[in-house]
Amino acid sequence: MWLKPEEVLLKNALKLWVTQKSSCYFILQRRRGHGEGGGRLTGRLVGALDAVLDSNARVAPFRILLQVPGSQVYSPIACGATLEEISQHWDWLEQNLLHTLSVFDNKEDIASFVKGKIKALIAEETSSKLAEQEEDPEKFREALVKFEARFNFPEAEKLVTYYSCCCWKGRVPRQGWLYLSINHLCFYSFFLGKELKLIVPWVDIQKLERTSNVFLTDTIRITTQSKERDFSMFLNLDEVFKIMEQLADVTLRRLLDNEVFDLDPDLQEPSQITKRDLEARAQKEFFRAFFRLPRRERLHGVLDCSLWTPFSRCHTVGRMFTSDSYICFASKEDGCCNVVLPLREVVSIEKMEDTSLLPNPIIVSIRSKMAFQFIELKDRDSLVESLLVRLKQVHANHPVHYDTSRNEDMTSPVFHSTSMCSDHKFGDLEMVSSQNREDNEKEKSPLLNPEALRAISQQSGSQSPDSRMSREQIKISLWNDHFVEYGRTVCMFRTEKIRKLVAMGIPESLRGKLWLLFSDAVTDLASHPGYYGNLVEESMGKCCLVTEEIERDLHRSLPEHPAFQNETGIAALRRVLTAYAHRNPKIGYCQSMNILTSVLLLYAKEEEAFWLLVAVCERMLPDYFNHRVIGAQVDQSVFEELIKEHLPELAGHINDLSSLASVSLSWFLTLFLSIMPLESAVNVVDCFFYDGIKAIFQLGLAVLEANAEDLCSSKDDGQALMILSRFLDHIKNEESPGPSVGSYHAFFSDDQEPYPVTDIADLIRDSYEKFGDQSVEQIEHLRCKHRIRVLQGHEDTTKQNVLRVVIPEVSILPEDLEELYDLFKREHMMSCYWEQPSPVVQRHDPNRPYAEQYRIDHRQFANLFKLVSPWTCGTHTEILAERTFRLLDDNMDHFIEFKGFVGCLDIMYNGEMNEKIKLLYKLHIPPALTENDQDSQSPLKNPLLSTARPLVLGKSNGDTTDYQKQLKQMIKDLAKEKDTSEKELPKMSQREFIQFCKTLYSMFHEDPEENELYQAIATVTTLLLQIGEVGQHSSSSGSCSQEAGEDLQASVPSPDQDSVFADTGTMPQDPQAFPVEVGREEDWTVSLEHILASLLTEQSLVNFFEKPLEIKSKLENAKINQYSLKTFEMSHQPQPELKLKSL
C-alpha cells in the first residue's frame, strides 16, 4: 500500500528494521523479527512493542523508504503485509521512477517529484474512497491494510472502525486491536511471539453489555453461545460500546428479522455502512422515536438553536430537527418544550434581519396564523434554501385545502382562539379535508359513520350525573385556556403543563381530536383524501384467512359497551380492521387490534380511527403487530430490566421475572384496555398518545409497586396473577361522565368482601412522579440492547424445534447434530454476508416453518459436503456433492433444508452397508446424474471392454471357482427380502455404471487398505460387466454376437490395468488381447441388487463400508476451515489445502 510521505530519521529505526534491498533513491526494509526462524529474542521484543505501541513504524512488516543521496532524512512511501506485496511496489518504482530521477539536478526536486507521484497513486486507489469517509483517512487506510492482511476476508467484508484495547483471557490481558466490520467483531494481538486472532460474527452475539471485573471497573462483555469475552482499556469506552451495539443491532435486524428488513432501506445496503453512517442512523432513530414520526421519514439535519416561547416570554435553548416533511424542536431541558411542525401546515419560511439580540433569526409561519421564531442558527442561508425546496415539494405532492365553511366542531369555543402573535382572530386548521371533498366522499361511501360511536350511543342512552358533567366542563375550560396560550393544532407548544392536563384525563368531547393531534395522525388524514374510502371498497367482500379471523373477533370487542351491541358499531369495526389488513398485508390482523380499534371508534370518526390505528401499529408500537410480535417481546424484556432497577426487592423475590410476561404482555399489546375498566383505561390511552410507550412502562411499574408487598408474599405465579388481576379490575375513574363498563377480562366480578378501589388519576400521577424519569433515549437504548437477546432467543427456539424433529430420525448424537446445525446456519449466513444482493428466496424468513427457515443452495452445500462428508474423493468430491444436492432437492427449488442434509450424512456415517450402497446407487442415476454432468465427458463413456466367457479368478492354490451359481442365489435371496411397498429403483445404464465405478475408485484413494480395495473393486467390476452383458444379450434377440474362442487365464488386474479405469489413450491396440463386444449402450443395464450382491462377495469392500466412522473430528476441522474455504471461493482462487485430521 502506498503511503503519504512523511520525513523520518533512519538512525532511530536501526534497532527495529533490517534493510533487504537498496538503490540510489529507495530502500526496502523488513521489520526485525518478522520471518525469522527460531523465535529470536529481538523478534519477540519487537512484536511485543508492536502490540503495545501505536506508531507509524507499526504499519506493516515491510516498508519502502525514499532516500535522497547525502541527506539523513528519509520518507516512507509504501508498506506491505507480505514480501510479495512490497516487491510489487519495488518493481513499480524501478520500472517507472528510477530511471527518470537521474535527470534531476536538485535533491529537493527529486523528493518533491517522488512525493507528488506517490500522492497521485494514493488518490487512485479504491481503498482511499473508503478512507475519505473517516475522520483520519491516513490512519484508517493503515488499519484497513492490517485488517485485510490479518483476517483475509473477501473484499465485501467492509471495515467500519477500529480501536486499541485489551482482551482478557481469564486474568491475563492481551493488548491488541479491535476491528469492527459490517458482519464481524475481530481482535488481533501479537505479544511476545504469540499471535491471537479472534473472529466473532455479530449474529452469534447473544448478549452485549458493560460490566466490571476484579481488575477493571468498566469493560465490554461479549457473550456468545459458548464463550464470554471481556474487552477493556478503551480511550472512549462509551463510543466503542455505542458503535458495537448499533452494528450488532443493524446486522441482526438485516439477517434475522425479515419483517423489519423489508421496511428499512438502510439495512439492505450493508456495504455503505460507515462509522459516520451509524452515528447518523442512531440520531435518525432517536428523532423518529422522540417525535413518533413515520419510519420512512429521513432526517436531514440537527442544529442547535433557540425558539421564542411566548408563554414564558423568552427564548428556549434546544435543537431543530429537519426532515423530509417536518421541522421539529426539542428543548435541551427534557419536557420543557417540544414542537412538531408538519411542512404541510407551513405557509412560509423567511429570514429576518440579523441583530445582536436576535442573531441569525428565521420565522416559520403556519396556516393557523401562528409564527415560530428560531434564532442562533448556523449556516442560516443554506438551511432556509433547503427548507423552501422541501416545502415546495410537500405542497406540490399534497395540495392544501382550506375550509370555507366551518363545521360544528370547529366553531366550538375550544377550537377557536386568539393568535399568540397578534390580537386578531384566525381560522382553524382543516383537520380532514375541504367541505366539497367531504360531501364527495359521503356520496362515494355512504356506509361510513360520520361521527364517533360514543356520540351515537349517547344520543339514545341516559345522560351522566350532573356532578360528573360539571367536572367535565371544568376540564374543558382548563383545556380551552391552554389552547389560547399554547396553540390548538398539531403545531402546539408541548410542555410539562399539557402533560399534567393529559394525566388528569382528556375531556370526552376532545379526546378523539387530541389523539389525532398528539399522534400526528391528523397529517396522514389530511394528506390522503379518499384513501380510506377506496380501501374499504377494495377490501370489503373479499374472503381470506385474515377476514375470517376478524369476523371471529368482532363480537368479542367490548361486548359490554352499547356501541358494539348493534350492527352499526360492528360494521364500522369490520371496515376499519379489514381496510387496515388490506393496506398492510405484512401485519394483516393480529389479536388485540380489535380491542384497540373498538376504543378508537368510540372517540373518533371512522376514517380518523383508521389513521389512528395506522399511527399506533406503524409508528408508536413498531413491530408489535406482526407474525412474531418482536416489538412487544423486546419491550417485555426492557420492562423486566426496569423492574430490577426500580423495584429491586420485588425482582429479588420473583426468581423468574419472565413469568410476569403472561400478565404484562397484554398491558402493552392492548394499552391496559383489556384488563382495566374502560372508563379508566382510556385515561391510560390519553397518556400513551402524548408520551408514547414511556407511559405504559411507568404505569406498569406503578401497578407493580402498588402491589409489591402482596406480590412478595405470594407463593406462586398463580397467586401473583390473581393479586394483579383483582387490583386492575378495581381501578375506577370517578370523573368519567359515561356509564361504567367493566374490563374486557375481569377475573373477579363477585368478590366476597369489598376490595379497595384505586383512582386512575392517582395511579397515573404516581407513575409520573416515581417512574417518569425515563427518557426516550434511554428507552431506545434499552430496546436496542434487548432486541439482540429477543432475536437470539427466537433463533434458539428455532434450533431446538428443528433438532427435536431431526433427533428421532437419525443416529447422530444430539451434541453433534447441534454443531452440524451451527455449521449449516453459518454457511447460509456467510452467503448473506458477502453475496449481495442476495435473492429474496435465499433470505432467512422467520415466517416459514422452523425446518424451512434456513436453506442452502448447491454451492453452499458443496462447501459443507467437502467439510463434513466422509466420502471424500479428491477432485471428484465436488462432482459427488453436486449429485448429492440434486438428489436431495426433491422439489426442484434449488435449495435444501437441514433435515435432508443431516439425513444424507446419517446414512454416510451410520447407515448399514446396503443403505450406503443404495445411496451411492441413487447418486449415479437420474435425477442425481444428468446428461450435462461435469464428469459425463469421460473417455469411459465409450462401449465397455468385456468378455463373454465365464469369470475365472486366479487363486493361490491354482484352483478355480465359478461364482455364477452363487451370485444367482444371492440375487434371488435379495429379491425375496425386498419390501414390496418400496418403489423399485430404475436399472443403471452403461454410462451411469462407469460413473459409479469412478466414484468407488476415488473413495478408496489414500485408504490404508487401498491396494486390496482396488483389487476387490476390479473383481466386482468385471463380474458386473458380465451381468450387464447377459441382460444386453437377452434384450437384443436376433442380433448376432461374437464369442471369444479362448479362455482368459489371467490373474486379477491391477487398478492401472483395469479396463474400467484405463484411459482410452493407453488401451492396448491388439483386439485379441481384450476381445470387444460392441452392443447398444442403452441395452446394457445392471440393478441395485446385482451391485450389492457383487460387493458382498469381497470382504475388504464389506469392511470398508461397515467400518465405524467418527464425525467429531470432521466437525472440529470444519469449524476451523469453514471461513477459509468460503473466503477462497469468494476470491476465485484455488481452494486451500484443508487442515483435516484423519477420521
What's a quick, concise take on this entry?
This protein has 1143 residues and is of the alpha+beta class. Helix 6 packs across helix 30 (776-806), helix 31 crosses helix 32 (858-868) and helix 31 (814-834) runs parallel beside helix 41.
Fold and architecture overview:
Keywords: Coiled coil, GTPase activation, Repeat. Pfam families: GRAM, RabGAP-TBC. May act as a GTPase-activating protein for Rab family protein(s). The protein has 1143 residues and is α+β, with helices and mostly antiparallel strands. It has a 7-stranded antiparallel beta sheet with strand order 9-8-7-6-12-11-10, with helices on both faces. It starts with 7 loop residues before the first strand and ends in a 13-residue tail after the last helix.
Number of helices: 41
End-to-end CA span: 43 Å
Runs in which pLDDT lies below 50 for 5 or more consecutive residues are 54-58, 402-446, 744-751, 837-841, 937-961, 1038-1079, 1133-1143
Which class of secondary structure composition applies to the elements? alpha+beta
Based on CA atoms alone, the radius of gyration comes out at 39 Å
Principal-axes geometry comes out as: globular
Strands ordered across the widest β-sheet? 9-8-7-6-12-11-10
Largest sheet features:
7 strands, antiparallel
Q: How many extended strands?
A: 25
Percent in helix? 40-55%
Q: Characteristics of this structure?
A:
25 strands, 47% helix, disordered C terminus, 41 helices, globular, alpha+beta, 7-stranded antiparallel beta sheet, single chain, 1143 residues
